[in-house]
What we know:
The structure is a single chain. The chain is α/β, with parallel strands linked by helices and 382 residues long. It has 8 helices and 16 strands. The protein has an 8-stranded mixed beta sheet with strand order 1-2-4-3-5-16-6-15, sandwiched between helices. It has a 4-stranded antiparallel beta sheet with strand order 10-12-8-13, with helices on one face. Strands 7-14 form a two-stranded antiparallel sheet. The chain is elongated, with a radius of gyration of 23 Å. The two termini are 12 Å apart. The mean pLDDT is 97.
Amino acid sequence: xxxxxxxxxxxxxxxxxxxxxxxxxxxxxxxxxxxxxxxxxxxxxxxxxxxxxxxxxxxxxxxxxxxxxxxxxxxxxxxxxxxxxxxxxxxxxxxxxxxxxxxxxxxxxxxxxxxxxxxxxxxxxxxxxxxxxxxxxxxxxxxxxxxxxxxxxxxxxxxxxxxxxxxxxxxxxxxxxxxxxxxxxxxxxxxxxxxxxxxxxxxxxxxxxxxxxxxxxxxxxxxxxxxxxxxxxxxxxxxxxxxxxxxxxxxxxxxxxxxxxxxxxxxxxxxxxxxxxxxxxxxxxxxxxxxxxxxxxxxxxxxxxxxxxxxxxxxxxxxxxxxxxxxxxxxxxxxxxxxxxxxxxxxxxxxxxxxxxxxxxxxxxxxxxxxxxxxxxxxxxx
Length: 382
């Protein structure tokens, strides 16, 4: 069973409408409502809403007992102004579906169409539309929600479109596939002064000038190395936008990234030791917080084999190109309670990169992604 031409036309129209109305992490109320509306004619056996915020889960039951198989996509968009010019460009200034979550949602709606026409023979399929992936908060919120307990999966699958890979080509492997990461916010505290008498204050300028290159120097290796680390300074603000005041405070944001979770504690300790040393030398105080904590994602060997078997059946080329992936994905949390695997679906060798302001999800991936997920479901559940 495959999508019909009418299905594909409808699904492309849905994707374009979702693209026009993006919502950032935690604010996906209208997107969630739209997804619920789309399920009305598809008659799932259960429809759970309000999961971990605005999450939605649709359940399709088989006639016989069997495993629970979850397919997950993301509801949220990014706080980035879209500069591309498709007819379906974002109508919300400063917010855009520039990671392709609109396409991922549409793929799951394609799978829902197929399941509504033929339920699995056994077990059940859960289609999860997860909130707040971009902040790393959504998967944990869903897993912690008591409403999710009755549909805890035995297997969990997800995909992410991947610019740089040929269109329709899949990258997949077992083991670590996306990195652990977290945001480090540092607040430096000194003492402001008149700009004509900077010596009467304590400026964070020199500490910032030393800390930024020192933090990035903690980076080493590639994702092929078990001790890979990457530190990226993403934001700095110092003092007031004025000519008469020597600064007395500053804020720095940096993203810390490691291949696996067990390496992250070491990198955090190195970063904080560096900050203590630099601030002490300049008589500065500092405080810090961590944000957007992502665990690394690891593909289970059995779940990966199920994916590659489906790809082989469909004649879709696949290898381990570019893996493990530097970006982070909170899908990894589902792997702590289920046999999970994520695959990376090529969006085109020359396609705009994820989070670029002119990125747009390729509609040609909708039937391909739907077909992959449908094949996995049928292979597991009949």
